[in-house]
Automatic annotation (TrEMBL):
Gene: LOC112453160
Residue numbers binding D-dopa: 222, 278, 309
GO terms assigned for molecular function: D-amino-acid oxidase activity; FAD binding
SUPFAM superfamilies hit by this protein: FAD-linked reductases, C-terminal domain, Nucleotide-binding domain
Gene Ontology BP, a term: D-amino acid catabolic process
Taxonomy, superkingdom: Eukaryota
Residue ranges occupied by any FAD dependent oxidoreductase domain in the UniProt entry: 2-324
One Pfam family matching this protein: DAO
Cofactor dependency: FAD
The name this protein goes by in its record: D-aspartate oxidase-like
């Protein structure tokens, strides 16, 4: 059996791993992507924090995806080469003045080890007169480490990587039995999915090794420490914008907000500024929904895209679900089993 996973970001690579580890462990697996080194996954801070806007087909399924994802990364955190995989534990705070609901998170509160209300002293840990706050511990997966580690591990286990522009999924039906579409924003063209739009984000990466905890404020303000003293400062959300150029005014605004929140960041040197286009999908992420591509072919396609800004943290849960869907569809439609 030959299987193609289309997409070289965190969703694609994680899905390829589940393909090999599951029912299709003896398959000939290829990961296809136009670019493996410049994906929106590389821009993300990678903190495991699922926002209220993320949703699957039902609350029960969404909670299952979140639990699977957290357990996947937590298992990596416990491995000997967790530092190479870019996975670590992290804790910090979210503060708000507008509403106590801002600092609550119904997706995370029953998943992470600690999620509690901040006390009066903790509300003063950063600048500002905050009314509401929560402290929680979670995980961080730094994609600049995780992606090359995952590629190396998959390659060592026999998975092939090919750099290729795929203009239509029908191009693949003569070469592969199963095609799993993990193309993120690219699925807009490949699937003619008009629900999919870009959600442009811009962040700064600064050197601030003294930062050990993350902090969230309002107006999409966040300070998230990563590996090797690099801290992500954010952020921005520009709906339906595909401008990949760094905006200096936006960078200045981000830095001002973050330095106001954490004044010690005024001493942090900027290492780079980055822009990414999140694949936001109205109605939620598309997982499964398998079908035959063509009446004259037995090839089937399964989808796994539309994660918005939660691709890194949610990739394992949706990858497992997509592969399960592929197994069931293949069993039910193919005479090969």
């Amino acid at each position: 059996m030959k299987i193609a996973v289309v997409g070289g970001g965190v969703v694609g690579l994680t899905t390829a791993g589940f393909v090999q580890a599951g029912y299709f462990h003896n398959a000939d697996i290829t990961v296809l992507a136009s670019d493996f080194d410049n994906t929106v996954s590389h821009v993300a801070a990678g903190i495991f924090r699922v926002g209220a806007s993320f949703c699957g087909p039902s609350e029960a399924i969404t909670r299952h995806w979140i639990k699977d994802s957290y357990e996947f990364y937590d298992a990596l955190r416990k491995m000997n080469d967790a530092s190479r995989a870019g996975v670590t534990a992290i804790s910090g705070y979210i503060f708000a003045n507008s509403s106590p609901n801002v600092v609550k998170n119904h997706w995370l509160e029953d998943v992470v080890p600690v999620y509690r209300r901040a006390n009066e002293e903790e509300l003063k840990l950063v600048n500002g007169t905050w009314k509401y706050g929560s402290y929680f511990s979670t995980l961080l997966t730094q994609s600049t480490l995780y992606l090359p580690w995952a590629r190396q591990r998959l390659h060592a286990n026999g998975i092939t990587f090919k750099q290729r522009d795929v203009n239509s999924l029908k191009e693949l039906i003569d070469d592969y039995d199963i095609i799993i579409n993990c193309t993120g924003l690219g699925a807009r063209q490949l699937c003619n999915d008009r629900r999919l739009v870009s959600l442009r984000g811009q962040v700064l990466k600064v050197k601030a090794p003294w930062m050990k905890m993350f902090f969230y404020g309002e107006l999409d303000t966040y300070v998230i420490p990563g590996f090797n003293g690099v801290v992500t400062l954010g952020g921005s959300r520009s709906f339906d914008s595909e401008n990949m150029n760094v905006c200096p005014y936006e960078s200045a605004a981000i830095r001002e907000r973050c330095e106001t929140l954490v004044p010690s960041l005024k001493n942090a040197k900027i290492s780079r500024q980055e822009v990414g286009l999140r694949p936001h999908r109205e109605g939620g992420v598309r997982v499964g929904e398998g079908s035959r591509i063509s009446n004259h072919s037995e090839a089937i396609i399964v989808h796994n895209y539309g994660h918005g800004g939660y691709g890194v943290c949610m990739a394992p849960g949706t990858a497992r679900a997509a592969v399960d869907s592929a197994v069931q569809l293949y069993k039910s439609t193919s005479s090969k089993i």
